[in-house]
Each structure stands twice: as C-alpha cells, then as structure tokens.
Amino acid sequence: GSCHQIGSGLYSRPDPRCTPGALNPQVTPATIGSTICAAGWTETVRPAESITEQEKAASMAAYGDGGSLSAYEYDHFVPLELGGATNDARNLWPEPGGSPNPKDSVENELRREVCDGQLSLRVAQHAIVANWVALARHGAASPPPPAPITTSQSGSSPNTSAGCSVTASYNPRYHDYDVYVHSSEPDQPVTVSDSAGHSRSWHTDGAGSADVYFDGAGGEQITVHVGAATCTGTL
Q1: Angle at alpha carbon of residue 232, lines to 229 and 201, rounded to 5°
Q2: What's the rounded Cα separation, in Å, for the pair 87 and 56?
Q3: pLDDT digits (tens, 9 = 90+) for 135-187
Q4: In contact, 230 and 191? CB cutoff 8 Å
Q5: The pLDDT value given to residue 151
Q6: Rounded-to-integer distance, Cα 124 and Cα 142, Å
Q7: Has residue 207 got a pLDDT over 60?
Q8: pLDDT score recorded for residue 155
Q9: Which of 78, 111, 129, 149 is the most exposed place for a label (fewest CB within 10 A)?
Q10: Each residue of 85-140: pLDDT tens digit?
Q11: What is the per-residue pLDDT for 234?
C-alpha cells in the first residue's frame, strides 16, 4: 500500500517513486529496425503469464488495489513496442481496466511515428513517462521536441541560474547504479556519461530531479548534462 497512482480509472498513471519506468538495452535507435519496428517482435520478449501473474498480485498489493486480478492490466509503463524493459519491477504496474485502453492508442501511434522516422525513440519514451494522459486527451500522440542540451567548453553552465548536483548508489538487485540528479532544470533531457564512452539518457521530473540507471565501474567519474547545466560525480 505504499504506492499511489496518479489520477483514476483508465486515465491513471503509476507512482513515479514505485514505477519510474525502465528501458530494454537491446532497443536503441540503431536497432529499432530489427526490434520494435519488426512485426511480431514484442511477442518474442513478452514475459509469460505464468511468470507475471504472481508479480501482478504483488504489484497490486503495493498499490493497495483490491478486487480480482482481471480488473487490472499488468502494464509495461514504457511499453515493449517503445523499448521498455520486459520484466523489471520499475516498469510494471497494475493499470486499472482491461485492454485495449486509451494508453494503448498512444503507444501504437508513438511507435508508428518512431518507425516512420517522424519521432526519435528517446522523445517517444519521454512522452509516455512524462504524461501519456495529456497526449491521449488532446487527441495527438506527437509531443513537442525537448529543449536541446547545451554546454560550454569550460564545462560550466552558460545560464548562470542553471545548476545540478549528482550522487550515485549501487543497486545489487539490478547490478547497476542509480544516478540521482538534482537540478534547476525541470522536464529536461538528462544524459549521464563516463570516460569510457558509455552514456544513458532519461529526463528530469517537474522538480528537476531524475534517477538514471547506469552501467559502470565503481570509482569512475561521470558527467551529467541536464538542460543548460553540467555537473560531475563519482560512481
């Protein structure tokens, strides 16, 4: 009962503390032709119901949902057809109602636009997590492009009011790091990178914060670009 959905009914969204969304590393802009844009691909990665049924019951308990399991869809917050993680607790939650539902229509339209080259994969993933309900209610799936990431050569922010800080914590369950970013840049793309050339992108919430899942080595220095701000930290 510690998780609380945003809204109600078919137009509800998951608690960002419990279900922030997570991505499938196999799906990248370079692989969409053989993954999400290939007919039938999602069925090859979708977990079996025999696996997810118990997980669904546990997730319903976490959200304080009563009633039968059939009254909820065990929903991939970032959908499989947009490169969402296949069976990660951070990406699954009990969505009220059955399927099809209004979120399905938004997912299908965003996938079509990604596969037609009209929309980047990152923007589509961001749109689902940021507020898919707004897209559904306005009758248009295409979100506006995010503000570009800008940094100066010195590494300081060109906007004196922009700033950020970063901390990291190893997650033994998922064998990666939670990189916690706090900034003055709400609803902006955020990219974490290290000296080896690894990078992961996500987005800040309305308060300028983000939790980016990052694979790296302990002690490695990381650089964060978020909106007009840049900061560094250590894994």
Answers
A1: 65
A2: 11
A3: 887 665 555 444 333 333 333 344 457 899 999 888 775 577 888 899 998 87
A4: no
A5: 30
A6: 8
A7: yes
A8: 39
A9: 149
A10: 999 999 999 999 877 888 999 999 999 999 999 888 988 898 888 888 888 876 65
A11: 92
Distance of CA 36 to CAs 11, 87, 223, Å?
A: 25, 16, 30
The closest alpha carbon to 216, from 155, 169, 151, belongs to 169
In angstroms, the Cα distances linking 52 to 14, 18, 46 are 18, 17, 10
Q: What DSSP letter does each residue of the chain carry, written as one string?
A: -----BS-GGG-B--TTT----B-TT--TTTTTTTTTSTTHHHHHSPPHHHHHHHHHHHHHHTT--S-GGGEEEEESS-GGGTB-SS-GGGEEEEES-SS-HHHHHHHHHHHHHHTTSS-HHHHHHHHHHHHHHHHHHT--PPPPPPPP---TTSS-SSTT--EEEEEEEETTTTEEEEEEEES-TT-EEEEEETTS-EEEEE--TTSEEEEEE---TT-EEEEEETTEEEEEE-
Query: How many CB atoms lie under 10 A from the CB of residue 211?
Result: 19
Query: Which residue in the block uniquely carries the two structure tokens 């979708």?
Result: 46
